[in-house]
Amino acid sequence: MLLLRNPSISRESTCCFAGHRPDRLPSGWRQDPTALAPLTAALDQSIGQAVKDGSRLFLTGMALGVDMLAARLVLHRRNRGEPVSLGAVLPCPRQESRWNPEDQRRYRSLLEQADWVTLVSSRYTASCMGQRNLWMVQHSSRMIAVFDGGPGGTANAVDHARRQGISLTVLDPFRPPEANETLSRDFFALHQ
User: Fold this and answer.
1) Quick one: angle between helices 66-79 and 33-52, nearest 10?
2) Which pLDDT score is estimated for 81?
């Protein structure tokens, strides 16, 4: 893990993730791999398409849920020899400090495997999560979002990506993978 203050990023080849915490995903806080399998497959397929389209750097905010799932998928591809790297964009130091011990262990393992890590804020603030999302969108040309349509931080990140005009793939966590392509098209039609 390399801690960088101002990482040099080629926006054109960078993709960021946005998505819900486990409570808004299949199986909730249990994070059951079997229940998450369809979403995991759809997310991995979207990452594969991004790689085919030229994305090489993938940014994750390292929150519980989608962020950490996406990080694992990118690292798996990197370890298989694909030309991808993982940047961890942390909202503040020790964001994991109140998580359960198993989630903290997974988080630290993923951080150790990241190609680099950067901090958006030197301390926790009420706005640091949103600032992290904004930072990732400003440094990306593409976003893959797991979004159920409800309000919250993911909705804000998706809206910011849409306003910035970056390529946006939206996956509904409770729809079968084949339905998500239609969802992405419908999302754009509704938000133009």
Assistant:
1) 60
2) 97
All domains of the chain in start order, with CATH: 11-190 (3.40.50.450)
> Residue 175 CB: number of other CB atoms within 10 A?
15
Taking residues 110-126, what's their average pLDDT? 94
Give the mean model confidence (pLDDT) for residues 169-185.
69
Query: Who has greater pLDDT, 78 or 9?
Result: 78
Question: Greater confidence, 173 or 191?
Answer: 173
CA 9 to chain centre: 17
